[in-house]
Design brief:
Helix content of chain C: 40-55%
Strand content of chain C: 5-15%
CATH architecture of one domain in chain C: Alpha-Beta Complex
Strand order of the largest sheet of chain A: 3-7-8-11-1-12-13-14-15
CATH class of one domain in chain C: Alpha Beta
CATH superfamily of one domain in chain C: Amidase signature (AS) domain
Strand order of the largest sheet of chain C: 1-3-2-4-6-5-10-11-9-7-8
Largest sheet of chain C: 11 strands, mixed
Structural class of chain C: alpha/beta
Oligomer: heterotrimer
Order of helices and strands of chain C: HHEHEHEHEHEEHEHEHHHHEHHEEH
Chains: A alpha+beta, B alpha+beta, C alpha/beta
CATH topology of one domain in chain C: Amidase signature (AS) enzymes
Helix content of chain A: 25-40%
Number of helices of chain A: 15
Structural class of chain A: alpha+beta
Shape of chain A: elongated
Number of strands of chain A: 17
Number of helices of chain C: 15
Distance between the termini of chain A: 76 Å
Radius of gyration of chain C: 21 Å
Strand content of chain A: 15-25%
Radius of gyration of chain A: 29 Å
Shape of chain C: globular
């Protein structure tokens, strides 16, 4: 490859909003229900049914727009996007083309070189999700489940401002964090509550014009996004180098095979015949409405980091990690509010919590233990009612099923034995049974006492405080 | 007749509207659509510079519903009209190869 | 007086004082249907069992004193584009030949709450697209005043059923004249209220920004009474308007003194049948004698209403009718290869000619490259038409004219030339574009004995003025 190429990437990010009900009807959005049990005439396209906008959807969309520095459109409308597909019950999707709710925004990301760059946001619009299609092997047909039909989405359309997979990931992380902080969505790529379509073109370094772009769909993880970007860059460069041209088209990424294929068909005219939906009234965003939403905006990450630094004596590294996931920051603050010492709370999150999250591939938003129980656990260790290895054991159970550590420790008899007499008896037995170690210690081998502590803990089935045992051994020797 | 509708246009509109016309219907459609468009072209006589397109007659705005679940499960009813169903779902010809 | 000759107000009064029962009323009308409907084909579906069961239950509630309204126990016919839970609703189309809705339209719920007894579903032009009821997949309806003629459309079945005594009153929908024009052809009263007055939830959409539900009745009192029950603010219809002036029966007074009535010169010009013109002008004179101030004026843009209307209505219809795809309900072709072929076959076999014509046109005017030139242009012309009406209503309380250029044409004479057929809507169509209320009242007949209709158009939310004028005119007529 003689020439140098630059990759130009823009993203269309769909985010499922965390509303209780769908965008245009009162059906639940809860995940995992039996097929078609969360449906009504509206979200299944029954003749005669009509949509009515869920106010929370508008508020979330505006909140995301404000948090990403967008202009809020004061007079917005919904349009119909017409195309036939079985997951689309009306065969039109209610979306926004002509007057989307937010425009002209942008977020800052850190680049690999350590600099800061702005990724522009062209627009954010509200729309309805489609149903789910399941392929039935037996009948060789598709089965349609409309539970997801009408779940509210916002589509965040970026400018073609990104130049590498790293920048794309940084941009997505930034969006995810902002939206999670707003509580507008949990933004899970794997579960599809955040989906990114990648628009990509390549051009020779220094070229003024953009090349022809393709749109890549079906990207379910950051890894898939990275691989798809690399793959598509290579594919386009190969085409150009061999004198062919890139076709503007939509392609589907197959992460298993590591390749993409065109989704075109003769019956797919890509002419959506958008027009204003006569069934929905225009939206007029008043000053009061904006002020109300602004007043409800939460403390975002940078503000939070600053406050943590001032309020809590914990390392910058911890602050960075904890505020990097909204659920961790929430847990941290709630546990501290319940009396947990900030440093200790931070240690639990940074140590055991992160370790188990990694080991079990748990998302921060899926953490199930409550701040109350974490505070109780910290209390138990502070009062030396359990030692640290017991605490870790208890925490692991808490991580799984949010048990009350006080009750658990009581029931399982894990409390440290603080009965001096009982402990002394065991220690004396250990001394008597291990003359060699005693000899070594007395001859100046400090390490030998470790073995004796271990033997004592073993005899106590772990229910002693190692510090106390150590102290007692030293006294007796 | 100013608007000549080609076979390609009818074919294209057929793809958009999911309609398949017989040869006879196709000729009729070409002529009907051409005549209708000629007739609609009359609108071009009016100067509409600076006129806002009017999609709603009344200034009704901001009609919202609260985010409260109001619908239960009526799957059985929903599926009662389905030409074909299986496992609580609508059955459609397969959507991808 | 025979039950089938009574108005709704008369019948409910008779039921209230025990001279008749709701069950007797239902039986009388059902046997009239049995006798007459073979001739006229007003109904797609007659729900005999259901009607009798409702009548029994309504009668019990009337006797218990829980149902006291002026429609309690009165049998009604519904246009077949209004969803009725458990009762076949076809839109007179093959594509919905077996469709049984899972819910009931909001307007129909209002009627049921008032104790209406639903007889069945009336024939119409397929998906309300047509002016003669001949585009129905279930055969044409015939005009009871002369069965060689059409009843008008698209609510032709409803208008004919009222005229034939096959119901006491009926409900229709009006997108471009579909209540007023068949009312005129069949010699009954029909009204299209201001857009947003009656909930569209459960009305199978044709042109969403134009559709309104309204009554077809034997006289103006019934019209006001039924509209009062139909009208309500509905949270399920975003375009529904909250009004506190829907006590329409309060406008049933004989008083037009000082009422300013304008007759557009454009509504009396070329194309208008001489007998129709004479009858309409005589009606205006009658109102003038009662104290109204009648003037001629120029309402501009009349010729542009039809092209603007057909662009907008076809565009909206092309999208509204996309949901009929053979997957969730209705007709699916027997043989097909793959998904898109299934769509095409089901829709091509399921829809009739006129519906396909409008879907094609609508898809075209919205398609890439034509949207601005056709659809957007039509929306701009709509704004101009609305403005022309605003100017007219600054001078007049009511605009008066004919409903249609002629009386009912013979069966089979209209469908050959679609544009000629569309031209017949010239006096009614602009009313829908501007969202205005309009009423059609009988004003005599032509030499062949076919009824002529008088149309009065009011400014938005001014139904009461229309009812007052129509009621006053009706009283003059009765005195002749």
């Amino acid at each position: 490859m003689s020439k140098q190429y630059e990759t130009v990437i823009g993203l269309e990010v769909h985010v499922e909003l965390a509303t209780r009900t769908k965008i245009f009807c009162g059906c639940s959005t809860a995940f995992g229900a039996e097929p078609n049990t969360q449906t009504c005439p509206v979200c299944t396209g029954m003749p005669g049914s009509l949509p009515v906008l869920n106010k929370q959807v508008l508020e979330y969309a505006i909140a995301v727009g404000l948090a990403t520095n967008c202009d809020i459109t004061r007079y917005a409308k919904f349009d119909r996007k017409n195309y036939f597909y079985p997951d689309n019950p009306q065969n039109y999707q209610i979306s926004q083309l002509y007057l989307p709710i937010c425009r002209n925004g942008g977020v800052e990301i850190e680049t690999a070189q350590g600099g800061v760059k702005t990724v522009g946001i062209h627009e954010i619009h509200m729309e309805e999700d489609a149903g789910k299609l399941i392929h039935d092997e037996w009948e060789d047909c598709s089965l349609v489940d409309y539970n997801r039909s009408g779940v509210p989405l916002i589509e965040i359309v970026s400018e073609p401002d990104m130049r590498s997979a790293e920048e794309v990931i940084a941009y997505l992380e930034k969006l995810r964090l902002v939206i999670q902080y707003l509580g507008a969505s949990d933004c899970k790529l794997q579960e599809g509550s955040m989906r990114a379509d990648v628009n990509l073109s390549v051009r020779e370094v220094g070229a003024k014009e953009f090349g022809t772009r393709t749109e890549m769909k079906n990207l379910n993880s950051f890894k898939a996004i990275t691989r798809a970007i690399e793959g598509e860059r290579e594919r386009q460069i190969d085409l150009i180098e061999s004198g062919e041209s890139v076709v503007q088209e939509t392609r589907r990424w197959d992460d298993g095979k590591g390749e993409s294929y065109a989704m075109r068909s003769k019956e797919d005219a890509q002419d959506y015949r958008y027009f204003p939906d006569p069934d929905l009234t225009p939206i007029s965003v008043s000053e009061e409405m904006l002020a109300g939403i602004l007043a409800k905006q939460p403390e975002f990450r940078t503000e939070k980091m600053k406050r943590y630094k001032e309020e809590f004596d914990i390392p910058d590294y911890d602050i960075d990690i904890i505020t990097g996931e909204k659920p961790l920051a929430d847990l941290f603050e709630a546990t501290v509010a319940l009396g947990g010492q900030p440093k200790k709370v931070s240690n639990w999150l940074m140590g055991e919590t992160l370790r188990l999250m990694k080991e079990r591939e748990t998302d921060a938003s899926d953490l199930c233990f409550s701040p109350e129980n974490l505070a109780k656990l910290i209390g138990l260790t502070e009062r030396k009612e359990i030692n640290s290895s017991v605490a870790k054991e208890v925490f692991e159970v808490m991580f799984e099923q949010d048990i009350d550590p006080e009750t658990y420790v009581e029931e399982k008899g894990l409390k440290t034995v603080n009965d001096e007499g009982a402990l002394k008896k065991i220690v004396e037995e250990v001394i008597a049974a291990n003359p060699q170690s005693v000899e070594d210690y007395r001859n100046g081998k400090e390490k030998a006492i470790g073995f004796l502590v271990g033997q004592t803990m073993k005899a106590m089935k772990g229910k002693a405080d190692p510090g106390t045992v150590n102290q007692m051994l030293k006294e007796l020797l | 007749m100013a608007n000549i509708i080609s076979d390609e246009t009818i074919e294209y509109v057929g793809i958009l509207a999911k309609l398949e016309l017989s040869d006879g219907e196709r000729e009729q459609a070409k002529s009907d659509m051409g005549r209708m468009l000629d007739y609609i072209d009359k609108l071009g006589e009016l100067d509409t510079t600076d006129v806002e397109p009017m999609s709603h007659v009344f200034p009704v705005q901001n009609v919202f519903r609260e985010d409260v679940v109001t619908n239960g499960d009526d799957r059985e009813q929903l599926l009662s009209n389905a030409p074909q169903e299986k496992n609580g779902m609508f059955m459609a010809p397969k959507t991808f190869e | 007086m025979k039950i089938t000759d009574m108005t709704a107000v008369q019948l409910s009064a008779a039921i209230k004082v025990g001279k008749a029962t709701a069950v007797e009323a239902a039986e009388a009308v059902l046997s009239q249907i049995e006798r007459e409907d073979k001739k006229y084909n007003c109904y797609v579906t007659v729900d005999r069992e259901g009607a009798l069961a409702q009548a029994k239950s309504v009668q019990e509630q009337i006797e218990a004193g829980t149902l006291t309204g002026p429609l309690a126990g009165v049998p009604v016919a519904l246009k077949d584009n209004l969803c009725t839970e458990g009762l076949l609703t076809t839109c007179s189309s093959k594509i919905l030949h077996n469709f049984v809705p899972t819910y009931t339209a909001a307007a129909v719920k209002n009627l049921k709450k008032a104790g209406a007894v639903i007889l069945g579903k009336t024939n119409m032009d397929e998906f309300a697209m047509g002016s003669t009821t001949e585009t129905s997949a279930y055969g044409p309806t015939k005009n009871p005043r002369n069965p060689e003629h059409v009843p008008g459309g698209s609510s032709g079945g409803s208008a004919a059923a009222v005229a034939a005594g096959e119901c006491i009153y009926a409900i229709g929908s009006d997108t471009g004249g579909s209540i007023r024009q068949p009312a005129s052809y069949c010699g009954v009263v029909g009204m299209k209220p201001t857009y947003g007055t009656v909930s569209r939830y459960g009305l199978i959409a044709y042109g969403s920004s134009l559709d309104q539900i309204g009554p077809l009745t034997k006289d103006v009192s019934d019209c006001a009474t039924v509209l009062e029950v139909l009208a309500s603010h509905d949270e399920k219809d975003s375009t529904s308007v909250a009004r506190d002036d829907t006590d329409f029966t309060s406008a049933l007074t004989e008083d037009v003194a000082g009422l300013r009535i304008g007759i557009p010169n454009d509504y009396l010009g070329e194309g208008l049948d001489g007998e129709v013109k004479t009858a309409v002008l005589q009606a205006a004179e009658a109102l003038e004698k009662k104290g109204a101030i009648v003037e001629r004026f120029d309402l501009s843009l009349v010729d542009y209403a039809i092209p603007a209307y057909y662009t907008i209505a076809a565009a909206e219809a092309s999208s509204n009718l996309e949901r009929f795809d053979g997957i969730k309900y209705g007709y699916r072709a027997k043989e097909y290869e793959g998904l898109h072929n299934m769509y095409k076959k089901s829709r091509s076999e399921g829809f009739g000619e006129e519906v396909k014509r409008r879907i094609m046109l609508g898809s075209f005017v919205l398609s890439s490259g034509y949207y601005d030139a056709y659809y957007l242009k039509a929306l701009k012309v709509k704004a101009l038409i609305k403005k022309a009406f605003d100017e007219a209503f600054a001078k007049y309380d009511i605009i008066l004219g004919p409903v249609a250029p002629t009386t009912a044409p013979k069966l089979g004479e209209s469908l050959t030339d679609p544009i000629q057929m569309y031209l017949g809507d010239i006096y009614t169509i602009a009313v829908n574009l501007a969202g205005l209320p309009g009423i059609s009242v009988p004003c005599g007949q032509d030499g062949k004995g076919l009824p002529i209709g008088l149309q009065m158009i009011g400014d938005c939310f001014q139904e009461k003025k229309l009812i007052r004028a129509a009621y006053t005119y009706e009283l003059c007529e009765k005195k002749f």
